[in-house]
Amino acid sequence: MSEQPSFLREVDTLIRARYPLLYLVTFEEQRVDALLGDIAKAHGKELVEWSATRGLRTFTSGHRGTPIDDTAEPLRGLMHIGKLPNPSLVLLKDFHRYLDQPVVVRALRELGNALKAQYTTVLVVAPVLTLPEELEKDISVVDVPLPTKAELMALLKDIARLVTRNRKATVELSGEQAESLVSAAHGLTLSEAENAYAKAIARDNRLDVSDLKLILDEKSQVIRKSGLLEYYSTDQQLADVGGLANLKKWLNRRKDAFSEKAREFGLPAPKGLLLLGVQGCGKSLTAKAIATSWKLPLVRLDMGKIFSGLVGSSEENLRKAIRAVESLAPVVLWIDEVEKGLAGSGGSSNDTGVSARVLGTLLTWLQEKTSPVFVVATANRIESLPPELLRKGRFDEIFFVDLPSDAERGEILKIQLSKRKRDPAKFPIEELVKATAKFSGAEIEQLVVAGLYDAFADNVELEGKHLLENAKEAPPLAVTMAEDVARLREWARTRTRPAS
Hints:
This protein has helices at residues 6-16, 29-42, 74-81, 102-115, 149-165, 175-185, 190-204, 212-226, 245-252, 260-265, 283-293, 303-306, 313-328, 338-341, 354-368, 406-419, 429-435, 441-457, 464-473, 477-480, 482-493, and strands at residues 21-25, 46-51, 55-60, 63-64, 88-93, 121-126, 140-143, 170-172, 206-208, 229-232, 272-277, 298-301, 331-335, 373-379, 397-401, 497-498. The two termini are 57 Å apart. A hairpin with a 3-residue loop joins strand 2 (46-51) and strand 3. Helix 16 (406-419) packs across helix 17. It contains 21 helices and 16 strands. The radius of gyration is 28 Å and the shape is elongated. Helix content is 47%, strand content 15%. It has four domains: 6-143, Rossmann fold; 149-223, Helicase, Ruva Protein, domain 3; 238-401, P-loop containing nucleotide triphosphate hydrolases (Rossmann fold), CATH 3.40.50; 406-480, Helicase, Ruva Protein, domain 3 (Orthogonal Bundle). It is of the alpha/beta class.
């Protein structure tokens, strides 16, 4: 056999140690069937599967045999397993659906005890872990990770070889380009990756590096299916972010930090950033620009969706979201307004400690994660942030995004005018900079938009006067909430790194 995945070596060890009951958490039944078929063959055992539609039946050389009569009902199936004439690996497909029945749980426990004297192992194969308390000490759980890049590369080579031999398509991939396609497919199941490669070939009867975007689009399906995450397709660049020179420099020096070259150099993957600051000053825009500049997918975690009315489900929702994000790595994870989701973590709310448990799960992951997930968390209100989140080790750096300076407001004005196909040289930039004192970047953008509306309504071209008039009529947030902004600035002065 070729080199086994680490989880399979663990399963192999447990089988050789004659553990009677195992629980494999995976969506990939076909992959597990093939891998366990190799183990069964190596140990001289039969591979047997049970499903609610067919009951028990054996595998022979990869083909399923005739179902054994009267074994489709779970209890009868378990009773028959104890009577199998030969040492076997028995896969119970989607058996978690029956573990809420006391009689089935009892039968499974009794079967486990009986199998300790035999050479048969029963493996529950299910996409989610549903384990009653009675079985916690009797069954060993193994999480089956998604395919490695080596497995995905082997799949790509098999498909390329097949379509080339049958002359159904043209394959034009260098070694580096093949690595790019495999990286794009990382995080998909083998079945999903096979479908993505097949779709790429079916589109134009070719498989080449131009199919990279299509495979990444297929990857976004993983995000949509989770229901907890949003996949963002963005073309924002760091050049679109006005000012923030310190932050941009920090990011530019880390843009290749997820590469294999960085690993060989001994660099750890960067953990992420916490961006604190005044509303509308570019925190969210920066998150989008990081993903584009680093050529990584961008995923947004909505903390509001994590919390639900079911006790215990909020923590499981977060764990599910983390698993989905890690399956897509390398990726940029954007947690917008993180303080809103953790407002009750101090125990003062009436959420029976759910926020505190969610915070604990999040903090542990931020501290211990080894997968290449770059987290960009943004926050506007520091008084709502739990102090544990600010501790060193959760993030690589905490930046404070302040109101733009005179020079930065001039840069933002030029960016916003250029985005709308206007020549900044035709506008009184210096006068506008003075008129927009204490304006945030978002407020400057809205100023340009409001000026466009006025010019359009008057049926004239946009001029500086339209912008100046709107600047006088719209007091910025830093004026209407001066005390809050002053308190935020004072707090950040000695606790964070300035982004500008």
